[in-house]
């Protein structure tokens, strides 16, 4: 597939690459081995969230380097900031995006390339079942506009003020050890289990 993309992009001048593609296989919290069709879930998430980003960068970056100018925007997530039990395949893939982006920025900044990592919380799209927008959940168009306004100012961002404040509050109120402890509580496991059962009932 990537060879075909590379062939088709030959001769095109690409100044901005946005690696937006991403999938969250299970919206409800799911323990690693409880993921239905786990083999496919693993392969799909890795190909979609990680492999595509690296391959598209490999394909497009050389011409940017040649022109000494270019912008790469990679979509990570707030859940890439820390281990996120019950969604570890997704959150680990987003961690990868964050590390790859920061490393790439350091490697290519002096060659005129900006690599920005965008780490949203909730944005109302298909991925999160189009949750109603409010002060926490941004609409896709508002979020995209705000995030694009940060280009050139920061290479790692929550993308908008509301998400930056939420991210800050989460880090402040729930440092990693506290966060992991809370998520490991038996009562929370029960809540997750009830959510799962409700989801299964709705599917039937
Ligand atoms: N929405 C959020 O709350 C949120 C939060 C944090 C991070 N993010 C990240 O933001 C990015 C955009 O997500 P979104 O919310 O816009 O999700 P979305 O509405 O589900 O859209 C995802 C995009 O990825 C494409 N895609 C998904 N799986 C694919 C596959 N297997 N092969 C090819 N294309 C595929 C979709 O293509 P089609 O349109 O053809 O289906 C769509 O363009 C993702 O990287 C996501 O992880 C989103």
UniProtKB/TrEMBL annotation:
A GO term for molecular function: oxidoreductase activity
The keyword Ligase is annotated on this UniProt entry: no
A GO cellular component annotation in the UniProt record: endoplasmic reticulum
GO biological process: steroid biosynthetic process
Matches recorded under CDD domains: 17beta-HSD1_like_SDR_c
SUPFAM superfamilies membership: NAD(P)-binding Rossmann-fold domains
Pfam families attached to this UniProt entry: adh_short (PF00106)
First-listed, main subcellular location of the protein, grouped into a coarse class: endoplasmic reticulum
Keyword terms of this UniProt record: Lipid biosynthesis, Lipid metabolism, Oxidoreductase, Steroid biosynthesis
The organism's place on the tree of life at top rank: Eukaryota
Subcellular location: Endoplasmic reticulum
Family membership: Belongs to the short-chain dehydrogenases/reductases (SDR) family.
PANTHER family: 20BETA-HYDROXYSTEROID DEHYDROGENASE TYPE 2, RH59310P
UniProt name for this protein: Uncharacterized protein
Species of provenance: Leptobrachium leishanense
């Amino acid at each position: 597939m990537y060879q075909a993309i590379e062939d088709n992009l030959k001769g095109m001048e690409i100044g901005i690459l946005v690696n937006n593609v991403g999938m969250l296989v299970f919206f409800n919290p799911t323990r690693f081995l409880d993921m239905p069709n786990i083999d496919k879930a693993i392969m799909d998430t890795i190909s979609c969230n990680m492999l595509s980003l690296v391959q598209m960068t490999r394909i497009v970056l050389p011409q940017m380097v040649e022109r000494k100018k270019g912008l790469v925007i990679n979509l990570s997530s707030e859940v890439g900031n820390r281990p996120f039990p019950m969604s570890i395949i997704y959150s680990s893939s987003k961690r990868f995006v964050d590390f790859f982006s920061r490393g790439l920025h350091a490697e290519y900044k002096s060659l005129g390339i900006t690599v920005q990592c965008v780490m949203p919380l909730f944005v109302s799209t298909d991925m999160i079942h189009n949750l109603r927008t409010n002060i926490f959940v941004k609409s896709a168009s508002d979020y995209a506009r705000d995030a694009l306004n940060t280009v050139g100012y920061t290479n790692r961002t929550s993308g908008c003020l509301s998400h930056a404040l939420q991210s800050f509050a989460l880090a402040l109120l729930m440092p990693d050890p506290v966060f992991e402890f809370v998520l490991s509580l038996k009562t929370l496991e029960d809540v997750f289990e009830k959510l799962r059962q409700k989801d299964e009932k709705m599917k039937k």
